[in-house]
């Protein structure tokens, strides 16, 4: 009781209100976006490639990705030719393709016109392609082609005259049947080296 009578009054706590000052919003300068003068000339150029992804409703990850493509001068005439990478139907699929899906090679005549020269080129092989890299790995002056795939990869040596030979197994780059090569690229060290990115299976 004595402590209660002698206890000092509670100290008053003073408060100071500080006004909140918001930063001034910066105004973005007005930008005029230039028009990009692109026109779709796919049909008039002679390119009619349609990608087959094998989808049947299972929503498998490789089906969501295109096979890719590459511009390269396969015939050494100074014009950039076009290779469109195709995939295929799955081995267990109920649906069968009307024709065997293969990648498509188009030769550029130098005027913006392309001719499909796939048949008999050696690139007319069924595979589930997921990526492509072009480079002259054997230093013979002809650009070769590597295609990463769901399943075995493919390395095609350009032997000239519009012909390619599949040397995947002898070169040791085909991988395993259950591998999934998602992408690839050529790199120059002392010699051309191929880098293959794979999804674990």
Could you name the key traits of this structure?
single chain; 201 residues; mainly beta; 4-stranded antiparallel β-sheet; 29% strand
In short:
The protein is mainly beta and 201 residues long.
What is the topology?
Layout: H1 2-6, H2 42-45, E1 69-72, E2 81-84, E3 104-108, E4 114-116, E5 128-135, E6 144-150, E7 154-160, E8 163-166, H3 168-171, E9 180-188, E10 192-199
Antiparallel strand pairs: 1-2, 2-3, 3-4, 5-6, 6-7, 7-8, 9-10
Helix content: under 10%
| Structure class | mainly beta
Q: Whole-number radius of gyration? A: 31 Å
**Could you give the distance between the termini?**
81 Å
- The count of β-strands is 10
Main sheet specs: 4 strands, antiparallel
Number of domains: 1
How do the helices and strands follow one another from N- to C-terminus?
HHEEEEEEEEHEE
Residue-averaged pLDDT, rounded? 87
* Low-confidence segments: none
- What fraction of residues sit in β-strands? 25-35%
3D shape: elongated
Oligomer: single chain
Give the number of helices. Answer: 3
Strands ordered across the widest β-sheet = 1-2-3-4
Characterize the structure shown.
The chain has 201 residues and is mainly beta. It has one domain (53-199). It has 3 helices and 10 strands; from the N terminus they run ααββββββββαββ. It has helices spanning 2-6, 42-45, 168-171; strands at 69-72, 81-84, 104-108, 114-116, 128-135, 144-150, 154-160, 163-166, 180-188, 192-199. The strands form 3 sheets. It has a 4-stranded antiparallel beta sheet with strand order 1-2-3-4, with no helix packed on it. The chain has a 4-stranded antiparallel beta sheet with strand order 5-6-7-8. Strands 9-10 form a two-stranded antiparallel ribbon.
């Amino acid at each position: 009781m004595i402590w209660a009578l002698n206890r000092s009054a509670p100290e008053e706590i003073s408060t100071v209100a500080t006004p909140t000052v918001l930063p001034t919003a910066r105004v973005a300068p007005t930008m005029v976006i230039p028009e990009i003068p692109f026109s779709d000339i796919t049909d008039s150029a002679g390119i009619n490639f349609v990608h087959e992804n094998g989808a049947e409703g299972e929503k498998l990850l490789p089906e969501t990705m295109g096979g890719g493509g590459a511009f390269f001068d396969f015939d050494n005439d100074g014009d950039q030719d076009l290779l469109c990478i195709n995939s295929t139907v799955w081995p267990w699929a109920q649906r069968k393709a009307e024709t065997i899906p293969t990648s498509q090679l188009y030769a550029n005549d130098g005027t913006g016109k392309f001719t499909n020269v796939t048949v008999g080129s050696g690139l007319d092989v069924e595979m589930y392609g997921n990526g492509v890299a072009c480079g002259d790995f054997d230093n013979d002056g002809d650009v070769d082609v590597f295609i990463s795939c769901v399943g075995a990869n493919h390395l095609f040596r350009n032997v000239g005259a519009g012909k390619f030979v599949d040397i995947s197994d002898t070169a040791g780059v085909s991988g395993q049947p259950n591998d999934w090569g998602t992408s690839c690229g050529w790199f120059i060290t002392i010699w051309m080296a191929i880098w293959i990115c794979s999804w674990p299976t």
